[in-house]
């Protein structure tokens, strides 16, 4: 399965910038794996008996939840594409049920970036693309939001 943007490029259109959902989507999974590991370590430290079984059970439950979160975060990143071409801004999410947002770069009125403190440190944020007479769209938790904004707003000569 190829990238969505490669399937929809028009003649003379080229991709100027691509970004994706930030790895912060994996944070719940990372925390779940850490919790599972802690319960596993604790199970080896407590005396034999029901306490070990409880710790191993909690480790297993945490590992299952962490695996679920890992798979869903990976799937979200895999099925989300955000691109800027010399003609359009394109954002696609979903696999079976696909949702797309496309706006001509000529119609972009403003591009707003919203980053939390953690977002500034880890380089992710929400980007709102507003168009002339077309409304707007907020792209949540994308990687490198300032570079994405600059790819939209900084038009090189001749494009």
TrEMBL record:
Positions of transmembrane segments: 21-42, 48-68
One Pfam family cited in the UniProt record for this chain: bPH_2
Segments forming domain YdbS-like PH: 79-144
Membrane among keywords: yes
Keywords, in A-Z order: Membrane, Transmembrane, Transmembrane helix
Coiled coil start-end: none
Top-rank taxon, per record: Bacteria
Designated name of the protein: YdbS-like PH domain-containing protein
